[in-house]
Design brief:
This protein is α/β, with parallel strands linked by helices and 743 residues long. It is 45% helix and 16% strand. It has 27 helices and 24 strands. A hairpin with a 4-residue loop joins strand 11 and strand 12. The longest helix is centred in the N-terminal third of the chain and has 19 residues. The protein is globular, with a radius of gyration of 26 Å.
C-alpha cells in the first residue's frame, strides 16, 4: 500500500452534524492534504438513502448513488477508514416528513403506503422500509465497539463539572418493567452445531402453516434466540402502571427504542398510546380506521390525520383527548411549551437519550405545567430495565454523582455483523393469529418455538461466532491495557446470556488473562458494582451486547461528562479496517431549529475532532504514513488546548457557536503543527497558516459572530441546498481565504 492510496471517507449524515460538516470538512481536507491524505464525502443521510432506493422515479441529474451500500462493502476491506457521524434512525413520521420535503424540491417520489393495496405499493413500502430505523449501523459495523471518554475530556469535565440535579432520598421516581409475558421471560436460545438454512413459520390453530421468512442462513456455532411479548400482558401492565402513577401522584412516562428496534418497539409504543387514550380509541375507532390513524406513530399522527375532518367532528375528538387528561395521571412532556407529550412521536422517547437526563436532573421530568416532577419510568421489557432501576435507587440512597471525582465506565460492545437484537428487524413479526411461531431448519427439525396469540410481538435474533470471539479478545486487550476490573454484563438466568456465557468460558482460556480481573455479572449486579466504584472515583470496563452497549454509552457519559457526544468510539473492523464514530446525536433536532430561527448552531463537534485524530493514527499505521501520524499527534494536542481554552460552543447568540469552535480548533492545530520538529516541511507550511489565523483572530471571530442573530434559510431540514448551507456555515471570508489557500 502506498501513501497515495490513503483516503478517509467522511459521512454526510443529518441535522446538526450534517450542518457542522459544511464548516468543518473544508478545514480538515485542507490540513490533511499536506500528508497526502484525501478526504471524500459519502452521503448516508436519510434523504440520501431515500433517493438512492428510488432511481427509477428520478431524473438523471437527481439520481444518487447508494453510498451506504458502497461503505458497507468497503467496511469489509483492510484499508477501510470511515468517520461516521450520528445519523437519523428514522421513524415513520420522520420518513414521511423527509419524503414531503424532497417532493417539494421537485423529486417525484411516491407517497409512503402504510397499507399497501397491490404489488407496486408493496414494492414502494419495502424500499422505504430499507431506510427505516437503524438502516446505517448494521451495514457499517463490521466490527465490535471500543467506546470511552478520552483522558483530555475526562480531565476537562473534572475541572469544569457540568450541572447535576440534587437527589432526595424520598424521591418517588422509579423504574418499572413487566414481571412476565415479556421478551425476557419468554426467551429461548440455542447454539447451532452445523450450518443450515432455516425458515420462520406460523402454524395456526387450524393447522395451516404460513411461512413468514423462507430463507435464513445460519452458520455453525451461531447463537440464535426467539422470544415474544404478549399483547395481552403488555396492555394489562400498561393499564396498571397508568393507574398506579395517578395513585402515587407522579408523571407517567414510557421509554423505548422505537427507531433502532424498528418493528417491536414502535408496536409497544402504539399499545402505550392506545391504552392511555383508550376512551378516545374506543369511541372514535371507526373514524380512525377510515383516516388510517396508526397509534404506532404516536398522538402527533392522530392530530395530523384528524385535521382533514369537519371542524365540529375534529373539535369533538380533541375535547375527548382533553377529557382523558382529567382521568389519567399527568404525562411527562417532551416539550411543555408546545404541548408535545411523551406519547406524541416514537422517536422523541428513545430510551438511551431520555433516561440519562432523568437521572442527571434529580430523577425528574417536565410535566404539563412546565415544572419538574417525580416520574414513573415505564420500560416494559425486563431485559435491561433493571439497569436503570439500579441507577435510580443508587441515587436515592447516595445522592447525585460528582463529576469532579467520579470514575468512568468505558464499554466493549458486541455489535459486529448485526449482532443480537439490532439485527432482528427482518425476523420480527406481529403474530397473525392464535397458534405457534417456530424456527425450522432445512431438515424440518424445529429449533425454537412458542405458543402465541394474535397481536403478540415475536422476534428472532442471532449473533455469529466470529464476532463473539473478537469481542472476548477485545475485552481481554482492554483489561490488559487498563488494569481495571472488566465485567461481562450477562445474566445466567436469561436464555441468550446463558449461551454467551458458555462461549466466554470456551474462549477466555485461549487468552493470557493472568493478573486480570475479569468477571461475569448480571446487568443489575454489574450496574451496582460499577456505580459503587464510580462513586469512589474508580473505573470499570463494561463488556456488553449490542443494545446494552447503546444504552450504557449514553448513560454513563451523560452522568460523567454531561454528554455522550464527546466520547471516543473506535470500531476495529474484523478485516483490519477502522470505523470511527463521533458520539451521539440525541439533541441534534433542537440545534437545527435554533440555527434556522437565529443563526446559532450549538452542536459540539468535539466527537468529530476526537474521531479524526484516531482515524489519522489508524491511517498512519495502515499506510506507513509518518506525516499522518504527525497530524494525529498534533490534533491530540490541539484537542487538549481546545478543551482547556473552553472553545466549545456556548448556548446563545453573541457567544461562540459551532463555526467558531472550528476556527479555534484549526488555529490550535496549525500552531501545534508549526511547533513540532519531526517534519520541517509541515512545520514551515503551517507556521504561515498559524500566523495568519492568529493575526486575524479578531476579524474572523467578528465575521463569525456577525452571522448570528437572524433566521437562516438553508433550503431544507432533511435535504438542504448545498450552496445555501455552505454559505451559512462558512460566513467568515477571512478564514475561508486562509483555509482554501493551504497548499
Amino acid at each position: 500500500m502506498t501513501a497515495n492510496a490513503a483516503k478517509i471517507l467522511y459521512t454526510k449524515t443529518d441535522e446538526a452534524p450534517m450542518l457542522a460538516t459544511y464548516s468543518f470538512l473544508p478545514i480538515v481536507a485542507a490540513f490533511t492534504k499536506a500528508a497526502g491524505v484525501a478526504f471524500e464525502l459519502r452521503d448516508i443521510s436519510l434523504a440520501g438513502r431515500i433517493l438512492a432506493v428510488f432511481p427509477d422515479y428520478l431524473t438523471p441529474q437527481q439520481k444518487q448513488s447508494d453510498d451506504l451500500a458502497e461503505l458497507g462493502e468497503l467496511a469489509k476491506t483492510p484499508e477501510a477508514n470511515i468517520i461516521k457521524l450520528p445519523n437519523i434512525s428514522a421513524s415513520i413520521p420522520q420518513i414521511k416528513a423527509a419524503i414531503k420535503e424532497l417532493q417539494s424540491q421537485g423529486y417525484k417520489l411516491p407517497e409512503y403506503p402504510e397499507d399497501p393495496k397491490d404489488d407496486k405499493e408493496k414494492d414502494i413500502k419495502a424500499r422505504y422500509d430499507k431506510v427505516k430505523g437503524s438502516a446505517v449501523n448494521p451495514v457499517l459495523r463490521e466490527g465490535n465497539s471500543d467506546r470511552r471518554a478520552p483522558l483530555s475530556v475526562k480531565a476537562y469535565s473534572r475541572k469544569h463539572p457540568h450541572k447535576m440535579g440534587a437527589w432526595s432520598s424520598d424521591s418517588k421516581t422509579h423504574v418499572v418493567h413487566m414481571k412476565g409475558g415479556d421478551f425476557r421471560s419468554n426467551e429461548e436460545s440455542m447454539t447451532t452445531t452445523a450450518a443450515t438454512e432455516a425458515r420462520i413459520e406460523f402454524v395456526g390453530q387450524d393447522g395451516k402453516t404460513t411461512v413468514l421468512k423462507p430463507k435464513l442462513a445460519l452458520q455453525a456455532g451461531e447463537v440464535i434466540d426467539a422470544t415474544f411479548m404478549s399483547r395481552r400482558a403488555l396492555r394489562e401492565f400498561l393499564e396498571a402502571q397508568i393507574e398506579d402513577a395517578k395513585k402515587q401522584g407522579v408523571l407517567f412516562s414510557v421509554h423505548l427504542k422505537a427507531t433502532m428496534m424498528k418493528i417491536s418497539d414502535p408496536k409497544i409504543f402504539g399499545h402505550a398510546v392506545s391504552v392511555f387514550y383508550k376512551d378516545v380509541f374506543d369511541k372514535h375507532g371507526a373514524v380512525f380506521q377510515k383516516l388510517g390513524v396508526d397509534p404506532d406513530n404516536g398522538l402527533g399522527d392522530l392530530y395530523a390525520k384528524i385535521k382533514t375532518l369537519p371542524d365540529d367532528q375534529r373539535a369533538a375528538i380533541e375535547a375527548d383527548i382533553q377529557a382523558v387528561y382529567k382521568k389519567r395521571p399527568p404525562m411527562a412532556m417532551v416539550n411543555s411549551d408546545k404541548g408535545i407529550t411523551n406519547l406524541h412521536v416514537p422517536s422523541d422517547i428513545i430510551i438511551d437519550a431520555s433516561m440519562p437526563p432523568v437521572i442527571r436532573d434529580s430523577g425528574k421530568m417536565w410535566g404539563p405545567d412546565g415544572k419538574l416532577h417525580d416520574t414513573k419510568c415505564v420500560i416494559p421489557d425486563a431485559s435491561y430495565a433493571p439497569v436503570y432501576h439500579e441507577v435510580v435507587e443508587f441515587c436515592k440512597k447516595h445522592g447525585a454523582f460528582d463529576p469532579r471525582t467520579m470514575g468512568s465506565v468505558p464499554n466493549v460492545g458486541l455489535m459486529a455483523q448485526a449482532a443480537e437484537e439490532y439485527g432482528s428487524h427482518d425476523k420480527t413479526f406481529k403474530v397473525p393469529g392464535n397458534g405457534t411461531m417456530r424456527v425450522v431448519d432445512a431438515s424440518g427439525k424445529t429449533l425454537l418455538e412458542h405458543k402465541v396469540e394474535e397481536g403478540d410481538i415475536w422476534r428472532m435474533c442471532q449473533v455469529k461466532d466470529a464476532p463473539i470471539q473478537d469481542w472476548v479478545k477485545l475485552a481481554v486487550n482492554r483489561a490488559r491495557a487498563t488494569g481495571v476490573p472488566t465485567v461481562f454484563w450477562l445474566d445466567k438466568n436469561r436464555a441468550h446470556d446463558a449461551e454467551l456465557i458458555k462461549k466466554i468460558n470456551q474462549y477466555l482460556p485461549k487468552h493470557d488473562t493472568k493478573g486480570l480481573d475479569i468477571r461475569i455479572m448480571s446487568p443489575a449486579e454489574a450496574t451496582r458494582f460499577s456505580l459503587e466504584r464510580m462513586k469512589e472515583g474508580k473505573d470499570t470496563i463494561s463488556v456488553t451486547g449490542n443494545v446494552l452497549r447503546d444504552y450504557l454509552t449514553d448513560l454513563f457519559p451523560i452522568l460523567e461528562i454531561g454528554t455522550s457526544a464527546k466520547m471516543l468510539s473506535i470500531v476495529p473492523l474484523l478485516n483490519g479496517g477502522g470505523l470511527f464514530e463521533t458520539g451521539a446525536g440525541g439533541s441534534a433536532p433542537k440545534h437545527v431549529q435554533q440555527f434556522q430561527e437565529e443563526g446559532y448552531l450549538r452542536w459540539d463537534s468535539l466527537g468529530e475532532f476526537l474521531a479524526l485524530a484516531a482515524s489519522l493514527e489508524h491511517l498512519s499505521k495502515t499506510f506507513n504514513n509518518s506525516a499522518a501520524k504527525i497530524l494525529a499527534d498534533t490534533l491530540d494536542k490541539a484537542n487538549a488546548k481546545f478543551l482547556e481554552s473552553n472553545k466549545s460552543p456556548a448556548r446563545k447568540v453573541g457567544e461562540i457557536d459551532n463555526r467558531g469552535s472550528h476556527f479555534y480548533l484549526a488555529l490550535y492545530w496549525a500552531q501545534a503543527l508549526a511547533e513540532q520538529t519531526e517534519d520541517k516541511n509541515l512545520a514551515a507550511r503551517f507556521a504561515k497558516v498559524a500566523k495568519q489565523m492568529a493575526d486575524n483572530e479578531a476579524k474572523i471571530t467578528g465575521e463569525l459572530l456577525g452571522a448570528q442573530g437572524k433566521p437562516v434559510a438553508i433550503g431544507g431540514y432533511y435535504h438542504p441546498d448545498d450552496a445555501k448551507a455552505t454559505k451559512a456555515m462558512r460566513p467568515s471570508q477571512t478564514l475561508n481565504a486562509i483555509v482554501d489557500a493551504i497548499a
